[in-house]
Design brief:
There is one protein chain. This protein has ten helices and eight strands. It is an alpha/beta fold and 255 residues long. It has one domain: 3-Layer(aba) Sandwich (Rossmann fold), CATH 3.40.50.720. Strands 3-2-1-4-5-6-7-8 form an eight-stranded mixed sheet, with helices on both faces. Strand 5 and strand 6 form a beta hairpin.
Length: 255
């Protein structure tokens, strides 16, 4: 690390659990963030400020006035710009050393197949069930750790998928990929703005812990937050041997 980096990241280096070695692992890491909206904004800002060496942002959407209530990486004067470009500008304003790749494209299975294999850690900050399942499937195939978060109205959740842990469930073990239900969106249901900040920051924290080797992670636990009473609850889950995604012979063997 350079003298400037030692100073910039000194508060991480002072942590016994991180130290110089952990910060060097962060600097060498590649974080793939799917979604540059409510969750992706704080996640990208914290990853960039923490020194993640390569940050890839994926989002097909443009900044809209209605986003500004909660998507803190974007500003009034960037309305109409691609969200990935706006978020990248916000990250670089905090840390000019940040290397950010912007992909203004919907995260479908074909794109994920190309991107996930090169990532150190993946953060699912998307806003729909189909994308979450596709991201999970790609992470299982390539054996990459995934930090998945979601928020709607006053309800939030976060978990970690670690395909290399033979006991830990994937997202599809917890949420059936074949489930049929009516998709809800914040455009019609609303979302309490600070909750996306809470969960997005937690996603960044879990990702940095995975990269730096600070544990344990949320693998095997689904944290759920009721924002009305600010009460957390925990659901402990195990890998489903019959899971269509990670169950053998469907998923990647643990290693």
């Amino acid at each position: 690390m350079t003298d400037d980096q030692l100073l910039r990241y000194s508060r991480h280096i002072l942590l016994d659990e991180v130290g110089i070695e952990g910060q060097e692992r962060i600097l060498a890491a590649h974080a793939l963030v799917i979604g540059a909206g409510g969750l992706g904004s704080p996640a990208a800002l914290y990853l960039g400020s923490a020194g993640v060496g390569q940050l890839t942002l994926v989002d097909h959407d443009m900044v809209d006035l209605t986003n500004l209530q909660r998507q803190i990486a974007h500003t009034q004067d960037r309305v109409g710009q691609p969200k990935v470009a706006s978020a990248a500008q916000a990250v670089r304003a905090i840390n000019p050393e940040a290397r950010v790749t912007c992909i203004q494209q919907r995260a479908d299975a074909a794109l994920l197949e190309k991107l996930v294999q090169d990532a150190t850690v993946v953060l699912d900050c998307s806003d729909n069930y189909a994308t979450r399942q596709a991201v999970n499937a790609a992470c299982v195939r390539h054996g990459k750790p995934l930090v998945a978060g979601a928020v709607i109205r006053f309800d939030a959740q976060i978990t970690v998928v670690n395909p290399r842990d033979a006991q830990a469930p994937c997202y599809a073990c917890i949420f059936d990929p074949q489930a049929q239900f009516e998709e809800v969106a914040c455009s019609t249901m609303g979302v309490f703005a600070p909750l996306v900040g809470v969960v997005g920051a937690m996603q960044a924290a879990e990702a940095l812990k995975l990269v730096a080797g600070v544990g344990p992670s949320l693998a095997g636990r689904l944290l759920m937050l009721d924002g009305r009473g600010m009460e957390w609850s925990t659901l402990r889950t195990a890998r489903n041997p019959a899971c269509p995604v990670c169950g053998q012979p469907h998923g990647r063997a643990a290693g």
